[in-house]
Each structure stands twice: as C-alpha cells, then as structure tokens.
Specification:
This protein has 520 residues and is mostly beta strands. The protein has five helices and 34 strands. It has three domains: 232 residues, Beta-galactosidase, Chain A, domain 5; 140 residues, Beta-galactosidase, Chain A, domain 5; 93 residues, Immunoglobulin-like. The strands form five sheets. The protein has a 16-stranded mixed beta sheet that branches. Strands 3, 7, 8, 9, 10, 11, 16, 21, 24 and 25 form a ten-stranded antiparallel beta sheet that branches. Strands 27-28-31-30 form a four-stranded antiparallel beta sheet, with no helix packed on it. It is globular.
Length: 520
C-alpha cells in the first residue's frame, strides 16, 4: 500500500470560506503552549472509553459557562499567510495506524496556524481504552521559511483527515476531513472535495449574527481488522450549546456517514440548523445576467432537492441573488433533503482547474421522526467563487430550550446522485431569457426521460406563481434528449415571484416539482 505525500484538501477558496466562523471564537485567556491543549474545559482523561462517554461529557459541559479552547502559538506559526500555511505538510509515515496493514483507515492531522487558531484534542481508541494523540513538530515538514515549533511544544491540532484504499487497493485515498469550527467534508469514489457539512448551525442569516459551534475533541475508534467502516466520536461546544456526535463512516462508490447527535442547550436557541450543508453557487444557464466569464457555469452545487413526507420530489435551482434570500420549505417528518450537483460533463463548466463536475452531492436522510419544521435555504450574494454562499438545514418549528436534551439521527450520503427516490422524471436543466414579446421572462425546463414519461405520454401541465401571470405553457417531447421540455412565460407584477412547475397525469406527478424564486 502506497503512502505518498499528499497536499491539504483545503484550497484558497475553502480557507476564505471558513474565515467568517473564526471571528467569533477568538476571545478568552491565552494559556501557554504546553497548557493550551489541556486548558479547561478539557476532554476526557486517558483511560476506559465507551460509547456513552462523550454524551455524559457534553451534558456536564453544558452546565458550565462556555470557554473557547485557545493556545499560545509559537512565533514561527502564529502569523502565517495562506502560502506559508500550505507549506506545512503532514508526514504520511506518522499517520495514526500507518504501520498496521490490517487497518483499513489511516488518520493524518492538520497543523494549527493561519485561520486555525483553536486547538482540538484528538484521542485514539483501541480495545476500549483512550489515549491522547500528542502533537510533535516531527510529524510535519516545514517549508517556505516557516520555523518549526520547539521540540517540547504540545499544541494540539487543527483537525484531522482519514485515508483508506477505497478507490484502489494499493493506494490510500482521502475519504474525509474535519477542520475548522464544526465543518467537515467527504468524497465518494472518483470525486474531489466540494461542499461541506457542519455539526450544527445557530442563528444563520439572523440580524444578530451567526454563532459558529466548534468541535473541541475527537475520538478515533480503531476499526477491527478487515472492517471497512470507522467510528469517530466528537464533542461540540459553543456559547449556546454542548453536543455529542457519533459518526460511523463508510467510504465507497457512495460514502455514507451515519450520524447520531445529542444537543444540550445552555440557553434557548431560536434558530437551530440540524444537519447543515454549506456550498457555493455563482451562476449557470438560468441566471447569467451581468456575468462576464468564459465558463458556462460555476458552482459546487446547482440545486436544492427535497423529498417531502407526502412523497413529493422537489427541485429548486440555486441562485446568487442581489440581496440575501431565505426560503423555508415546511414539512412534518421530512424524508430527505440535500444540495446536488447534477451536470457532470467537463463541457458543462469548461474549467480544467476546478473540475466542478466531480464535486459531490450530499443528501440528508433523517432516521426516525423529526416532527414539525422545515428546511431553510439561505442564498447569500457573492461576487466570487472563493466564498461559500449557500446553506441548507432542517429548522425545528419549536425552538430548542435551555437545560433540555434533543437527539437526532440521520444519514449523510456523499454521492454522485441521491439514493433511490420516487420514479419520476428529474429536472435535467433549466434556462431563462427575455420573452419573444419583450414583456416578460421565458423559462425552459428539460426533464430527464423516465419510464413514467415516455414519448407517447400525454401529460398535463401544472404551473403557478405567487405574483404576476404565467402564460403560453407548452410541454413537448424532446427527441434530442429523449426527455420532455416544458416552457412558459412569466409576466412579472413587482420584483419577486415564487413559481412552481411540473407534469402530471391522473395517476399523479410524472416529474419533480420545479420551484424557483425569480427576482428582478
């Protein structure tokens, strides 16, 4: 098995996108470097470990005031710029379990510095016993004029990443990375990093500003010989809540995270985001107004997808709006939601560097009943693709109350396309432009051909808008794509319209429900 030197998965865009989360986490007393990784409130002592330990720790932590983890970084790494930070590389032969050929996974660690100033504690769990993985400068190579920390420095780490031979049996490829606040990302076989998930979102897009919880400790449970799944436990903390997470990670053609989490609020939380997803969308064919770019599209995700409790399959193209936009898709016991990348051809993007067609989709599958609430979609204006400007999460209808306990179980599918959904035709593309009479906007939606929508079908058109008028709606079979095309015109009345469109017959929906918010 080859253990070659590999670069960090975080590029310049990823680091810039995470920067906003760190401005809220810098307060607190700075202990010495040797004390930093053990400053109270600390993670568990080394010793016996069981699955309930982190949950007990989170419950106890929630009864104490929040104190962010801090460390006094040595001068050589305290004020690194982007290029200097990227020059610090972990040595693969120092990876956790690097010498154990029977272990499917290897763990590598991220150095502190640049935007990453809060240390996390990392523990290795073997045979029911936990031991802390202690920082050593010898684990890293330092280039670009970066001075290594002193040999006795015990700084902790910024995060970790997992590798496994899930693509080729003789080479360990990167599976996932946990670094920065509560952000993490993963890939399926053949993919490159794109969108991120988070442990928890609090007050996203609220006037008072967003609170960014952070993972302050991880326990990496060594898999049994031959096992192709791995458990990672995590302790999350913030001013409003302490939480316990348990991730069971299975990489492959589709990489799956089974997530169990329990939240213990310190105070009432009005806007809570469960299973939050974060991505980037700049433009594509439906909204290229004022775009001057050689590429046909630029995005990590092109649409929001949802499977409602009633079985309706929704597709909402994403937008890069002129002003902040927030949409709430209400439901009770939602069956699934996610952010998807559907167009996979190189020619959809024409970008040799970013390779947007290889970015993962991520689908959230709730396990059990989540009750009343809705999926909130936040679209933030962005001038450049270096910023993540899309957020989607489940928002419970009832706010989380202080000194209570809330548990959620769900499955994250990092995939090329979401798992099995109802057999209806899917939105393959949508475009818009000025109508023929110059008085409105024309929208054209192509649905992928499906057994439920053959050429001889005679579908009915179901379209509507919250404001204005839709006219000249036409559905016809497209012999070039072997699918169906639906087109119509919007005559606006004001600056905003919420539209929906689908094809149906007496048996029910034949296609996804296309939803779009048009703004002037």
């Amino acid at each position: 098995m080859e253990l070659g030197e590999r670069p960090s998965p975080l590029g310049r865009r990823d680091l810039v996108a995470l920067a906003a989360g760190f401005s809220l986490l810098g307060a607190g007393t700075l202990p010495s470097a040797a004390q930093g990784a053990d400053a109270p409130p600390a993670a568990s002592p080394e010793g016996p470990f069981d699955a309930a330990l982190v949950r007990r720790m989170a419950r106890e932590l929630s009864t104490k005031p929040f104190s962010p983890p801090t460390v006094q970084l040595p001068p050589g790494v305290a004020n690194l710029d982007y290029d200097q930070y990227r020059s610090i590389r972990f040595k693969p032969d120092k990876a956790l379990w690097a010498d154990d050929k029977g272990c499917f996974f290897k763990a590598e660690f991220f150095h502190l510095g640049f935007l990453y100033k809060q240390p996390v504690q990392i523990f290795a769990v073997e045979n029911g016993m936990s031991r802390r993985v202690r920082y050593s400068a010898d684990m890293f190579t330092f280039e670009g004029g970066v001075a290594p920390p002193p040999a006795d420095a015990d700084l902790g780490f910024a995060g970790f990443r997992l590798h496994a031979p899930f693509v080729k049996p003789d080479y360990v490829d990167e599976v996932c990375a946990f670094v920065g606040a509560s952000y993490f990302r993963a890939v399926a076989k053949g993919q490159g990093y794109g969108m991120s998930a988070r442990g928890l979102a609090i007050d996203t897009a609220e006037p008072q500003g967003e609170e960014f919880p952070l993972f302050r400790a991880f326990w990496l449970e060594k898999p049994a010989p031959g096992a192709r799944s791995m458990v990672v436990d995590a302790l999350l903390d913030s001013a409003s809540v302490a939480s316990a997470f348990r991730f069971t990670i299975r990489p492959g053609e589709e990489t799956v995270f089974d997530v169990e989490c329990v939240h213990y609020p310190r105070k009432d939380i009005a806007v809570t985001g469960i299973a939050p997803l974060t991505s980037m969308y700049m433009f594509d064919a439906v909204n290229r107004a004022k775009v001057d770019d050689y590429r046909p599209a630029v995005h990590d995700s092109e649409g929001y997808a949802m499977l409602t409790s009633r079985g309706e399959q929704i597709w909402r193209p994403l937008n890069n709006p002129a002003e902040l936009q927030i949409s709430l898709f209400g439901d009770t016991n939602v069956r699934g939601f996610g952010l998807s990348q559907r167009n996979r051809s190189f020619f959809d993007y024409e970008d040799l560097e970013a390779r947007y067609g290889q970015r993962p989709s991520c689908w959230v599958e709730p396990i059990g009943d989540w009750g009343e609430g809705g999926v909130e979609l936040v679209e933030i204006p962005s001038p450049r693709e270096v910023h993540d400007n899309i957020v989607a999460f489940w928002r419970p209808q009832t706010p989380l109350k202080a000194h209570s306990e809330y548990g959620y179980v769900y499955r994250l599918h990092w995939c090329w396309s979401p798992p099995a959904l109802p057999a209806v035709a899917k939105v393959a593309s949508c475009r818009s432009g000025i109508a023929w009479d110059q008085k409105g906007r024309q929208f054209v939606i192509d649905f992928e051909s499906d057994k439920s929508l053959p050429p001889e079908a005679k579908p009915s058109i179901d379209v509507g808008t919250s404001k204005g008028k839709l006219q000249n709606a036409v559905a016809q079979f497209n012999p070039e794509t072997k699918g169906w095309r639906l087109s119509f015109e919007l005559l606006p009345d004001g600056n905003l319209a919420e539209m929906h469109a689908r094809l149906v017959d007496p048996t029910g929906p034949l296609t996804e429900t296309w939803i779009y918010r048009w703004t002037a």
